[in-house]
Design goal:
Blueprint (H helix, E strand, L loop, with lengths): L4 E7 L12 E7 L11 E5 L2 E5 L17 E6 L2 H16 L22 E4 L9 E6 L6 E2 L14 E3 L4 E4 L13 E3 L4 E4 L13 E3 L4 E4 L12 E3 L4 E2 L14 E3 L6 E2 L5 H5 L4 E3 L4 E5 L12 E3 L4 E4 L13 E3 L4 E6 L1 H4 L6 E3 L4 E5 L1 H9 L2 E2 L14 H8 L34
Parallel strand pairs: 2-5, 7-9, 8-10, 9-11, 10-12, 11-13, 12-14, 13-15, 14-16, 15-17, 17-19, 18-20, 19-21, 20-22, 21-23, 22-24, 23-25, 24-26, 25-27
Antiparallel strand pairs: 1-2, 3-4, 6-7
Length: 430
């Protein structure tokens, strides 16, 4: 027979002890079958474990007391659930807004039936029951912090809290959570620096911190960590992309709508070669596009719009055989739009608006008339909705140069095109 563990929390009633009434006592009983209960207790089943409530009745012949004696007994299916109960209740007391009434379900010992809480057996004990997953997505809860809650759930593997109003910073203590592999705190009010505690979490594969107010630098180690998903867009990160991004397992990465500065590094293909979407839009990236963007052979979307990029478009973009969307809107690109890029078979949306291109060949003009290519607000004679002559001449009067000029006519793949508009070449040795 297993030993029953009693944790007794006593709250005094409003009357004084001199009135002859006893205090109100709340007992938490941890066990699987409710053995050892006092006579007269009743019980009811709750899924995989039992909740038992007992009340002591006064002598039937005695006159009623001013305040009746009341003892309530909570039964937990596992010690692990009992240990997180006060943590949950403390966090509940911090909730400042709950428009959907979520926390009304956070009552009693049936933690596995609390809305947003999910239980399972932890990896270290198949016979135990623990809080394994939290899903607060869309609950619209508000609290000044998650500290003392998230970092105190030792068995949690998934924590999803998208679209709430949680604030504060992320405690470094989350690095102690041994099973956490998905962390989604997107669309909240978190601030402070990048939560560097995640850098030590080797089991973490999913990190989503987008749509918050994090600021400062992004540690370069995060790009080489064993992550499959990294969403850090729509924050206030002000940093450069590291020169050597290295190899990565990341399959989904978004960096858009931050304040990344500096050039797109030539090593971009090492980190992004497996990505289907490369989102660099709405930052402050400068410099010229490296031809290495043509090595992103899995890319379906490449979006570097609304930056400060300059120079010509590299013809290496013609190697993106899977690409459906190319977006370079709102930069300072110039020269001729490469015909070989316009020949990409799967290209459905090609936006070059608000640049300074001056020449458009027949293949690209065909895309323009089909509505695939947006070339408005450029400097192309004869096309509608272009920049003024004065504006174009002013840009040309301040010429911009790019390093490795040879690279803009270099195609780092075997050309799949038959038109002969550009022959593939070999990169120079220097």
């Amino acid at each position: 027979m297993s030993t029953l563990v009693y944790v007794i929390l006593t709250s005094l009633v409003a009357s004084t002890l001199s009135s002859g009434t006893n205090g109100e006592t709340l007992e938490f009983l941890i066990g699987s079958r409710g053995r050892g209960l006092k006579n007269g207790c009743s019980s009811e089943n709750h899924r995989n474990y039992r909740a038992t409530r007992c009340s002591k009745l006064g002598d039937a012949g005695a006159p009623p007391a001013a305040l009746p004696v009341k003892t309530e007994l909570l039964v937990f299916a596992d010690q692990r659930l009992a240990s997180v109960y006060p943590i949950i209740q403390k966090f509940k007391s911090l909730i400042t807004s709950d428009p959907l009434g979520i926390t009304k379900t956070w009552v009693g010992s049936d933690i596995c039936n609390y809305k947003g809480f999910f239980c399972d057996s932890p990896p270290d004990n198949n016979s135990a029951t623990a809080v394994a997953s939290i899903d607060f997505n869309g609950f619209q809860l508000a609290a000044p912090t998650l500290d003392g809650f998230l970092d105190q759930l030792p068995d949690v593997a998934l924590f999803h809290a998208n679209s709430n109003n949680f604030a504060g910073t992320i405690s470094s203590n989350i690095a102690r959570l041994p099973y956490l592999y998905e962390l989604d705190i997107s669309n909240n009010l978190f601030s402070g620096s990048f939560p560097t505690a995640v850098l030590g979490m080797n089991g973490l594969t999913f990190l989503d911190i987008r749509f918050n107010f994090f600021a400062g630098a992004v540690p370069p180690q995060i790009f080489t960590q064993n992550l499959e998903v990294l969403f850090i867009n729509n924050n206030n990160f002000l940093t450069t992309l590291p020169d050597n991004l290295g190899s990565t397992h990341i399959l989904y990465l978004t960096l858009a709508n931050n304040k990344f500065i500096g050039p797109i590094p030539t090593g971009i293909f090492k980190a992004f070669s497996s990505l289907s979407e490369v989102l660099l839009s709405n930052n402050q990236l400068t410099g010229c596009l490296p031809y290495e963007v043509g090595l992103l052979k899995e890319a379906i979307v490449f979006d570097a719009s609304n930056n400060k990029l300059t120079g010509p478009l590299p013809v290496a973009l013609s190697c993106l055989e899977k690409v459906e969307l190319l977006n370079f809107t709102g930069n300072q690109l110039f020269g001729m739009v490469p015909e070989v890029v316009c020949e990409l078979e799967k290209l459905r949306n090609f936006s070059l608006s608000a640049n300074y291109f001056t020449t458009l060949g027949p293949m690209c003009r065909d895309l323009f008339y089909k509505g695939v290519l947006d070339i408005t607000n450029n400097c192309i004679p004869g096309l509608p909705f272009q920049r003024s002559v004065v504006e174009c001449l002013d840009f040309i009067a301040h010429p911009k140069s790019c390093p490795r000029m040879w690279s803009y006519t270099f195609i780092p793949c075997n050309s799949p095109f038959s038109s002969g508009s550009m022959n593939p070449g070999m990169a120079p040795s220097s």
